[in-house]
Amino acid sequence: MPDMSPEVLIPLIVMAIVLPLVFLRNRRPRTLDPRRMWIMPAIIVPMMGLALWGTSMDPRIPHVAFDALAWAILAFGLVLGGAFGWWRGRMTTIEKHADGTLKAQASPIGLILIIAVMLGRRALAAFLEPHAAEWGLNALAITDAFLVFVVGMIVIQRLEMFIRARRIQSGAGDGHVETVA
Question: For helices 6-25 and 108-128, what crossing angle results, to 10°?
Answer without folding.
Answer: 170
